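User: Show me sequence and structure for the first protein, then do the same for the second.

Assistant: Starting with the first protein.
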Amino acid sequence: MDNSTSKNDEIVPKYNMNHGKRGKALIFNHKIFDENLDLSIRDGTDMDCKRLDQVLNKLDFHVTVYTDLCYKEIHTVMKKTSLENHEDMDCIAVAILSHGAEDAIYAKDTFYKLDDVSDLLTPDNCPTLANKPKLFFVQACRGDRVDKGIRSAFVDAVESKTNTSLTMPSQADFLIAYATSPDFVSFRNPRNGSWFIQTLCDVMEEQGYHLEIVRLLTLVNYRVARMFEPEYKSGVAKQMPCIETRLTRDLLLKPKCVVLEKCDC
């Protein structure tokens, strides 16, 4: 009997999402920057921050918002978080809303690399988050190129309980969802917020409990790529979000169980 089919159809295991708590969500919201950086005020970011706070709370995260922090303050928050006990938590989420450039994100006073803060959550720095998802959502430009888009004639058709010791890469179990592709700008409406964060919140509200996270973010990609087409300077502008995944299992943010009080009637 040929077993090649069954071997190729190996089922991807799922992350354990049955801990007592979902976990922390940190939102670093940047609107105003030091004058020496010569960066514009990010009007509309408060809309993103408020909406993201609401949606992550609905998905059972314990959300904390930080506004216009300097880099050392951001690093301190992340370092403190890495030293906390996350044993009874499913995962952690970090959202950064700011200006950005190639390989850089801006704090209030200077730029930094995402690795400068994300590496604080690796298993050697934060053992209680080992083998747990670490989710980053980054709303920032990644360069100054503008995607003009291209017309196309294509039309779419509508965990094991065994306690086995295993060495895993330190960079495993991270997922980073960027608002745009490397070298390109991302867009933000001064009144309504950014395309990426607002679409992410829409999809999370609709499908947050039902879609595996990579599929959920693929739907975000689909909507941002298809549904936005503003006039930008001399022509049309498009935006393509980018998912970088190092997850090793499927991740589904299923609802946390609610323990009801017994009545005395």
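Switching to the second protein now.
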Amino acid sequence: MIEFFMNIIPPETTHQQKKVSVVNGKPHFYEPSDLKKARSKLMGHLSKHVPNEKLVGPVQMIVKWCFPIINGHQNGEYKYTKPDLDNSQKLL
């Protein structure tokens, strides 16, 4: 079993915030700079936990997002504001 905690403030930018522009009549998808920074932040922290050997077979991943407490929310309270946690999982 691999288990670790990343002591970071989770990014509030999600995978769903990709942008599209039309170039020569064709859609061109790109990541804005804040999305690139969020992806880089996560990859930098995750790279420290790469297993020594390749994982084989089924894998289960459990993620617990711990956001800073703001605006009178309680510790352990479910998050119902942006970013949507499903989209945060996609970025991860």
